[in-house]
TrEMBL record:
The keyword Transmembrane does not apply. It comes from Tistlia consotensis USBA 355. This is F-type H+-transporting ATPase subunit epsilon. GO terms for molecular function: proton-transporting ATP synthase activity, rotational mechanism. It is a peripheral membrane protein. Coiled coil: none annotated.
Length: 148
């Protein structure tokens, strides 16, 4: 069986000789073997695991996505994000670290957006009060100064 996992930016996994694939959707965990009927499901955050015919195992954490079994011989997964690893424990540590960094970046971006929103509101209020310098960019009313 062939397994393909892709994101919008990369082909993450492309394996031939896969004997079984396991994943999880909203109904629970499931497994696919070769010659399974055509099948499509939406994946939530999930670990996709597979075992190749030679016994080698692989794992991929996907954040949402669509899994399709086609023709009984190909499992294709399209996901916005995917992280691959052979060792499940190491993969978990990597995903936790990347998720923490992403949450920190998102918090900084939210704070910056709020700061800009407050500056825009201040400028609009100044304009509505008739303060000419609020929109003119004169000293004391420059956009950059109000952002600080």
């Amino acid at each position: 069986m062939r397994l393909v996992i892709s994101t919008p930016f990369a082909l993450v996994v492309e394996r031939d000789g896969v004997g079984q694939v396991r994943a999880q959707d909203a109904t629970g965990s499931f497994g696919l073997l070769e010659r399974h009927a055509d099948f499509v499901t939406a994946l939530g955050p999930s670990v996709v695991s597979w075992r190749e015919r030679d016994g080698a195992e692989g794992h991929c954490v996907v954040r949402n996505g669509i899994l399709a079994m086609r023709g009984g011989h190909e499992v294709a997964i399209a996901a916005p994000e995917a992280v691959v690893g052979d060792d499940l424990d190491a993969l978990e540590r990597r995903v936790v670290a990347e998720t923490g960094a992403l949450k920190e970046e998102e918090a900084c971006a939210r704070a910056e957006a709020q700061r800009i929103e407050i500056a825009v509101i201040r400028r609009m209020l100044g304009y509505l009060r008739g303060e000419r310098r609020a929109l003119s960019g004169e000293a004391g009313g420059a956009f950059g100064e109000e952002l600080r």
